[in-house]
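::Amino acid chain::
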Amino acid sequence: MKSIICYGAKDIRLETTELGQVGADDVLVDIAVGGICGSDLHYYNRGGFGAVRIQMPMILGHEVSGIVRQAGDAVANVKVGDLVAINPSLPCGDCAYCRAAMHNQCIDMRFYGSAMRMPHVHGAFSQKVVAKAKQCFAFSKSSNVHEAACAEPFSVALHAVKRAGSLIGKRVLVTGVGPIGMMVVAAAKLHGAMEIVVTDIVDGALARAQAMGADRAINVATSGDELDVYARGKGYFDVCFECSGNQSAIVSALDLLRPRSRLVQLGLGGDVTLPQNVVVAKEIELCGSFRFFEEFAWAVELIDSGRVNFTPLLTGCFLLEQAVDAFEAALDRNISMKVQIEF
């Protein structure tokens, strides 16, 4: 089979790889499409992120859907012919965090397409993948492979919304509307947010965020003064989902949040400096949000039921042989949101 392998910055190659054996609790999936994630782009563009660097050739990708072609003898949750999304998380199930139902904090996590451990964990950008049955979640016949592949990033958004607490009647700010920010908009809408305002520096992304359900979109590069009204009276928003990882966005969000509000940080970036006096005086809660676990099943059900529509996000689909073109397109936020590769 063919796989997309990253050797380092600006060095991905389409190479032949070997398929593993299908065990009793395994499923063989013909991968249909895979979405390029921000972490994939970091590996492609810079060879890693933060202190994490590619040290050996690694198959990329963790947002995939496909068709079950073989199921082991002990598999009962999916069957041959099913369209499935594959949960890229494989926690150990035995560490202190797994036993406390904090699976996303597993100290022995195996996550597809991650260079955080050595040897690296290969991803799912291959024509075929052997996965554990418990990683596979089936869709009905009415769903399509492109939306099915959105289950993983939508899980990230659902986890963030859960970390925020109840959103019913709340006014929400989303800073940074890349694919995750867009999906946070959809998740917040589902969970009862009364008003959602989004900020970014790319007009195309802001327009798509409104198509996803945002009530107002503000380009902070050209119309930043439009945020001033939200800073009056100690702030306006009850919750901020910070999806950019940019220090300026985080600091400005603190001015726009009302006392005893919550800032949920999803965006990954470098170290930042915060005006701690504002956090203390306004009693703002800072809350991190990392990956997901049980939310993956929720994401599949919500997508399958038609309660969310990610068509505005899907801006390009490339053939496997066009992998480099796909990654280059995904880097250009002026034209791309969620770029997928057909396998």
